[in-house]
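agent> Task received from the user: take the single chain below, predict its 3D structure, and emit structure tokens. No templates, no multimer pairing.
agent> Plan: (1) validate residues, (2) run structure prediction, (3) serialize to tokens, (4) report one or two observations.
agent> Step 1 OK, no nonstandard residues flagged.
tool_call: predict_structure(input=
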Amino acid sequence: MQSTDSILKLDKQHVWHPYSSMQAETPVYPVKSAQGVQITLNDGRVLIDGMSSWWSAIHGYNHPVLNRAIEQQLHEMAHIMFGGLTHQPAVNLAKKLVDIAPEPLQSVFFSDSGSVAVEVALKMAIQYWYAKQQPQKNKMLSLRHGYHGDTFGAMSVSDPDNGMHSLFTHTLAKQLFVDAPACTFQQTCQPEDIAAFTQQLKQHHTDIAAVILEPIVQGAGGMRFYSPDYLRQLAELCKTYDVLLIADEIATGFGRTGKLFACEHAAIVPDILCLGKALTGGYMTLAATLTTAQVASTIAQGEPGLFMHGPTFMANPLACATALASLDLLLDSPWQQRVQNIEQILQTGLSPCQSFEHVREVRVLGAIGVIELHSAVDMQVIQAQFVEAGVWVRPFNKLVYLMPPFIISTAELEQLIEAVVGVVKGIRHSCG
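)
tool_result: status=success, residues=432
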């Protein structure tokens, strides 16, 4: 095995990490292995994972069921093109997704990342209206503080001012935005809360193909939780003004908020649903865009009579087999009870942070815990402090947040929270 110093030297010379500079001195930590909710570093230190590998590893790491699914599929085929061919893992996964998704979503388009699932959704919406002889309906309406991915279409519907893509503003397609809802998860949506959204639809509905949003939880744009009542009223307005609704559940899907899909909090069904991240339990890159028979058949009946998209690694058999095993593992487990238990422990454990003068707010929903500070953290300092405390937590901007694997034990979660509260307590001198 290579030494830690050797790995880090090569990494610094050649590897460009996400949201980083090749000249940056931000530390990275070589990982030797991962098991359950524990990450073992090359130097022998063991960290409790509070991130689920960017919210995807809901079953933890090195799970025997998921390992077996990959091994069994590997003996059949690792990959096969999906143009003109099909295979059992993809067909069975599509059926499973249709079975668990809200009706009438029943057509599944596979892709290889969440950003691409959003691109597919945007193209579906535009092509739908093109097929209906309304090509002018090609704009998207989105919420500020939203995040939908890093590709160009996805960036165009993410927050144009407060998000991480503002330097691309002059290159991106121009979309429409309204302020993020001010009504929190526990509140009822008042007329003034939905007024701006209503006005945008009333004024621009003839040009809007779809509304795209993250239901209930705005993730990387600020970890904001908003009212199910707002989402319910928004969905009704989309119907009133004949605009499609795209729900980006890449971060929230598969139980993270306490419901299998966050849309269930508002009892609404989108026209198009984007899924990813936890779809394979964090094992493989795979995403899916689901839509209704109406959208699919309308696209088929228009020009050119087919949907214009086709990723090379679409419906990769290894990924589909793993996703099937992951979904069965989730649905056969007491996941609701686990998420509820995580929620209760997070609420109790993180609550002391609310008394810290440098903390703006503590909020918890399902298996998501958020500590929002008044000032941005210094990643150089705080990341090392978390590692020293024996946990893996990756803050961004003003947010220190937790999204642990669902299988985390009470003792592990309490240890994770204790470390986080301890680091946050002393963070005031690290804030910019």
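agent> Step 4: summary for the user.
The chain has two domains: 4-62+334-430, 76-331.
agent> Done.
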